[in-house]
Automatic annotation (TrEMBL):
Residues 27-257 form the Aminoglycoside phosphotransferase domain. InterPro entries: ACAD10-like (IPR052898), ACAD10_11_N (IPR041726), Aminoglycoside_PTrfase (IPR002575), Kinase-like_dom_sf (IPR011009). It comes from Sphingobium yanoikuyae (Sphingomonas yanoikuyae). It holds the Pfam family APH. It comes from the Bacteria. This is Phosphotransferase family protein.
Length: 340
């Protein structure tokens, strides 16, 4: 059972709102993730997932469960691999916050980007479908599917630098010199935007569910940061894994790509460009610096929630220790992009 959720309330609400669902269901919390708590619901009628906002006071605009539900409700009919949306509850009286229920997608989930449990010959196909699925997302025209108002107009990175600066300041628990240099530099050097699409915002291997027996993405998860913006944001965020050290997560720097079977960054970028009709992409160091700054802001939020006793994952303390290293690497990338 999930100790941090009102199981009887969930059972009662679901049995009343989901036709045919009996109340004798088991609810368990998924162990992964630092942000929106997610739970597995097992019943005689099938298996589902429930996703809610975190506990405690939240930063403005963060953890927008309602936006996530709207987005997957649009993408699912388009044939894009997301869980099947079932129901959104905006009545805070049920669980204390909004939540939604979706189908539970079965398959393989990889936490380690080096794919140690996959044969070398099977690694490239998994990375290829990951890139192809991202290109598929970026090919969806927001206005054509009713998502034209899902993000604000204008330069996405300019908005995001401003947004994450505010989020970082709202969660700030200490002064970090690299961040204090990074914020004004990013603000002054935002690159121009040439395309606009739906972007995931946190596209990496552990946010995907792969088919159990073939290289196919069955579902893209965790749409909390999704919006309308520059597709280079997603590509650069994915590409950043090739410059992040191997850490048992998505990092790949130091991998022997020829021996491992994992594509190089150049191969990934070429595949993405071929699928999206691009001639190439700009120098990625600015984008790496931005994404690392954003990660710094996210980790700062995790640390603040941990200090306040509201972290949604017991591993929050480990994550919080990444704050200073992330800030240092972000500034290193900024220096590679010309920052002084």
């Amino acid at each position: 059972m999930a100790a941090d959720i009102d199981t009887p309330a969930v059972r009662d609400w679901l049995s009343r709102h989901v036709p045919g669902l009996s109340p004798d269901m088991v609810i368990e919390k998924f162990s992964g993730g630092q942000s929106n708590p997610t739970y597995r619901i097992s019943s005689l009628q099938g298996r589902f997932a429930l996703r809610r906002k975190p506990f405690g006071d939240l930063l403005p605009s963060a953890h927008a469960i309602e936006r996530e539900y709207r987005l997957i409700s649009v993408l699912h009919p388009q044939g894009f691999p997301v869980p099947r949306p079932i129901l959104l509850c905006e009545d805070k009286a049920v669980l204390g916050s909004a939540f939604y229920v979706m189908g539970l997608v079965e398959g393989r989930n990889f936490w380690d980007g080096t794919l140690p449990d996959v044969a070398a010959s099977g690694r490239a196909p998994l990375y290829h479908v990951m890139v192809d699925t991202l290109a598929q997302l970026h090919s969806i025209v927001p206005d054509d599917v009713g998502l034209g108002d899902f993000g604000r107009p204008g330069n996405y990175f300019k908005r995001q630098v401003g947004r994450w600066t505010k989020q970082y300041r709202a969660a700030q628990t200490e002064d970090i010199p690299e961040v204090e240099r990074l914020i004004p530099w990013l603000t002054a050097t935002v690159p121009p935007q040439t395309r606009s699409s739906v972007i995931h915002g946190d596209y990496r291997i552990d946010n995907l569910i792969f088919a159990p027996d073939r290289p196919q993405v069955n579902a893209v998860l965790d749409w909390e940061l999704a919006t309308i913006g520059d597709p280079l944001a997603d590509l650069a965020y994915l590409a950043m894994n090739w410059v992040m050290p191997i850490d048992g997560r998505a990092g790949l720097a130091g991998t022997d790509f020829a021996e491992s079977g994992i594509p190089t960054l150049d191969e990934v970028v070429q595949r993405y460009c071929a699928a999206t009709g691009r001639d190439g992409v700009p120098d990625l160091h600015w984008y790496f610096a931005y994404n690392l700054f954003r990660l710094t802001g996210i980790v700062q939020g995790v640390k603040k929630r941990m200090l306040e006793g509201n972290a949604s994952n017991a591993k929050a303390e480990v994550t919080a220790k990444l704050l200073h290293p992330l800030a240092r690497v972000a500034w290193e990338q900024a220096e590679k992009a010309g920052a002084v």
